[in-house]
Amino acid sequence: MTKSTLSTDVLVIGWGLAGLVAACEALDAGKRVILIDQEPRTNLGGQAWWSFGGLFFIDSPEQRRMGIKDSLELATQDWFGNAGFDRPEDEWPRRWAEAYLNFAAGEKRAWLRERGVGFFPVVGWAERGGYGALGPGNSVPRFHITWGTGPGIVVPFAARVEQGERQGRITILPRHRVTGLVSADGAVAGARGDVLATSAAERGEESSRDVIGGFEIAAGATVIASGGIGGNHDLVRAAWPERLGTPPAHMLSGVPAYVDGSMQPVAEAAGARLINGDRMWHYVEGITNWDPVWPSHGIRILPGPSSLWLDATGKRLPVPLFPGFDTLGTLAHLRTTGHDHSWFVTSRQIVEKEFALSGSEQNPDLTGKDVGLLLKSRLAKGPTAPVQSFLDEGEDFIVENDLESLLEQMRRHPGGDALDIDRVRNEVLARDLEMDNDFTKDAQIGMLRSMRGYRGDKLIRTASPHRLQDPAAGPLIAVKLHVLTRKSLGGIHTDLDGRALDADGTVIPGLFAAGEASGFGGGGVHGYRALEGTFLGGCLFSGRQAGRAAAG
User: Which of 132, 248, 392, 459 is 20 to 30 A (C-alpha) from 240?
Assistant: First the structure.
């Protein structure tokens, strides 16, 4: 096997969004850059390419046009109430949170607009909370969808990197897997590793790990932007915290297999401190992809607030664990039930209005920037085409015209033997009885009626309140839901320049980290919980900080 030896000013490990931004910043500072990744070049852009493109802004023009009154003060209250920072090592994550909030309220939007990034005019309301003003959740809608979804946010930075490649200022090396960092005189001075065999795998598909050679790259600065652990279920289970109950025996993957955490031990061996590994972000509305790209490929339903949510036995989830309100609160509750799945019971009318699917490939109108298709799919009667495909082909969907037939099919479905059918029937009937008046004791019904006071919800996200068994609402639908792995909220401990810190809190010269590898900043900018729309933004901000500092 041959071994190549190269040198550069800045080495970036990982070409996801954070790595692309870091590389762009180093290029703009006039530095020579090498960008490497273990995957084939078809995967340039990493996980961000597959995302819905949600971005967190504070007091944006889009918010103001929708009548939303937001402020840095309110967003800070929400972030810190959500994060629950409570550890000595949270000092830098706290500082990152403050810096990111100022970025989101300040130059973030203009900085992206300068790069040609646009935004869908209707602002979404994710993680609605439902506790108190100081508790978890967004007080106002802040979820801004990128026009073009994930590719819309990736392309400007990928294009800048590829321009640098044509100019001979950046070298892009696919199929280069780092196995160790090189140290010299107490500083990190580059990386070494394996060259993997050329792969014809398409974007997101699992690729081989056949080694055909080796490499060593000397660098003045090295940036780790290699992502998290969500594609490696063994690592997810090993890091699973007691506060979230027992880890599921069965999970779906919301990220490709290459999100394997392989750089964590490499960084640790070089002296970097990994913190908050027990903080993680997984969804509970996962459905099996009927047309998978990677192993155990799951898609998340982005739900509106109306569906009836039941555990595997048919018991309704407690207040305020309604669809779209508290991701980790719901996960923690469901892990106490002894089952790995739960159920939505809903109507076609709710599905038409409220079911969106996470992922660029599940939103061809937004991803393709197709206004005509958007109007036809989002505002016309009927589910979007991708949702309809899951209704037709998805193994987790049951559609029946009456409640008794639906209950019978739920019972026959894998996992349905745990259902108490009488309880499910009673839950549906009791909910429907509450729909006869404009007032109610049912907190979920009261909340969804209140939410229709927000124009964005009334327009495209919250169905008009109705009985689930109302014939005019269409067939009844049950959806079996699974835990869907997604994000690591902890990672490499860094200062505000993205410089990696050792166990004593001392800067490791020459080593930087960004994106999910650094917990989106500092080793865990989100604390215990995310406000949504903050993962891509964390990649942007931490990649920018690390890229600028590495080039300094």
Answer: 132
